[in-house]
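User: Sequence for PhoD-like phosphatase below. Tokens please.
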Amino acid sequence: MTEHPVNRRTFLAGTAAAASAFSALPTADARPARQAGDFRSRWDLVPDRVWPGPEYWSNPLQDWRVRGGRLECTRPAPGRSLHVLTRELADRPGDLRMGVKLSALDGGPLAEATGSAGFSVGVRGPLGDYRNNLVHGSGLDAGLRADGTLFLGSGQGETTAPIDLGGIETLELRLVADPEGDSYRLALSAVDPDDDRVLGTVEKPGVPAARLVGNLALASNPGPARRQQDGPAPGPWAFTDWTIAGSKVDAHDDRTFGPILFAQYTTHEGTLKLTAQMPPLGEDDEPTVRLLVDRGGGWARVAESPIHPRARTAHFRVEDWDRSKETPYRLSYTLRKADGSSAEDTFDGLIRRDPADAEVLTVADISCNAHYAFPNTAAVVSMARLDPELLAFTGDQYYESTGGFGVERTDLEAALLDVLRKWYQHGWTWRELLRDRPSVSIPDDHDVYHGNLWGEGGKRAPGRDAVAATKGGYTMMAAFVNVVHRTQTWHHPDSPAAPGLQGITGYYGPLTYGGVSFAILADRQYKPGPDGKAPPTTSGRADHVVDPDFDPATADRPGLDLLGDPQLRFLEAWADDWRGARMKAVISQTIFTAMATHHGQPDNRLVADYDTNAWPQAARDAAVRALRRGFAFHLAGDQHLPAVVQYGIDEHRDGPVAFASPAINNLYPRWFRPDRPGDNRPSGSPGELGDFLDSFGHPLTVLSCANPELERRPGVLEAETDKSAGFGVVRFNTRDRTITVESWPLLADPTEPGTQFPGWPVTVSQLDCGGVRAADFRLPELVIRGCDSPVVQVFDEASGETVSTLRLPSPRWRPFAFAAGPHTIRVSDPESGRIEERTGVAATEGNEEELEIIL
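Assistant: Structure tokens for PhoD-like phosphatase:
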């Protein structure tokens, strides 16, 4: 576990209002503690499996298992721990009594084992939350070294005593903490469990009371987690009969996590799709999960689903779903015990009615969570206050560093357990919001253990390092990638994507909700790697250009994809389909421009970055034209630099508007620090606003931007705020046809006025997303009879291009065009199927004609 100084200045500590907001969430974590009764582990009742049970969290998941009635840490490595979730040391005087039986994993005399094992007590992270303690905490270690040493503490503060292990194969460690004035006296004894004979004791007086507040954990080879260490090699250990008692121990029986961990769902065109996320269970565990709903007559089972053996998910699909009603749902799972008994676990939530008739749909754009502030209570509280109807997780739901211990890359099962542990942190963070509203989750590069991803349609990369990744393809196993896709995207509406190379699944597709038609894109999966396809660089990296004389035209090479042809065709067809929708938006991983100028450090300037979706240029332009065709707003994440931009294709402002959301916890800050102020910016606005060319030559208009500070304050939340970490929502006003983007720093209270990033909120019109301000030509004003909200399509007869497709708010509108000459106008009513078309309609400057069309 990582050492951190304790910082009690948490977001919630300072405001009663925030605490009240969080307590309003349907979570059990806010219940008051009670003084604990005695705790005893019952792994003798747990079937063989990796997951130790709902009362525990194991670090890391893949290194622990229950087998034969005992808990085993199978990897001989330092810093492994298992926390009990339902007990903690309270910040009050009292005593602690704790015991556990130890043996070497493979049996034999303890004197022939290696490494150390025991307890870690008072485990605390910088934020004080018990979940933050799990992954960012450190505590006071107490245990046995196999060389015959009992120890209390570590480093220079360690106290030790020798014992004679003889031929003992199992011993019991007993830890006692008693108050002694303002401090505590700790005593650790080793006892032969066969005859209760004390083999040795070590005592440590004068332990500050503050060291004995926080989580309680078992430790295998306690100390900082790292792959290499000096001195004797660590060893694998087994534990049984963990007992906890004492007046200093609080009980939180509501803090269990699992077996049903969290759920995600969407409703679309009469179909409910829901995923229940489960832990890694065993062969003797119940293999299915049940879905029940209450339509007013009590709980009724509607489906039962098997648990996927790799993703540990249960999936439910319910046709003919009535989207006009709110419907409570319940997931139910039977947790079997080894003695034949069982317990029923339930997870309740709400399928919201589709707010198709609402005036405003609020969508949360959430991205890039390095989980430094896990469980990110500040962000969750703020998002609960904003109460969005739809959650859009736009990538990097976790990083390779999430939860510590690095990543597993070679063994498939270990890699799956490793990525699930990180994914569980994401779900644990957001589950109280996920349980009662639809959500979209799209994996980005770090979700599949890439620093940057150029997927090339599922190709296998020629290695596992960053150099191999720039050649294109996936560095991880196809089965691993498919599990990531399944856990994050199965609950989306059905995708038209066919499996790609290596059988890697696709997930792009449509979602219509709240009167807004969304296109969910996979904008990394089909993109080519730059190595061998873009000009060589002088930076030592194929993706980073540092040459100040770089000519972006040299990188604009023919035949390179961005979205891939099938996905681009889907996007174009989606832009023309307005059934059930009044507005359109695209959800993808990153914006289609290269905005950031400085990466990682404020003085680290990159001339160009092939990781951005500004490259390949021609393919990027085709994608942006498809968005413009449907007047689609773009929600994305990835760049760790909050911004609202308007794309340009042939000139400034002739493309859609996009929002790059702030990182929730910012792993890698970026800045936009242009060499000159932007053109055509509002009077008095900062120099980073206005018209620019991005690093690949595309017109770029910056409407708002929140650069990180150049220096950061101490404290996890304060430092993240200074890195421009935060959260944002997009409000689609389907009556006025406007889009308002709101964005706040991490520690801001979104209910207070004036707390957003400077330059926010930003409001644009639906027509802005079609490039109306850059269009010089107009068609006759249409007067449409027979339909109050028709769909109008405009085709350029010279180029054959679809210029635009728009559902009108009223039956009068003057279409625009980007070129003079004859155009075709098609007017339709999607609900009735009626269509009328006019050809040879002239687009001219200052057109004042009128054209009547009767459906």
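The domain at 360-772 is CATH 3.60.21.70 (Purple Acid Phosphatase; chain A, domain 2).
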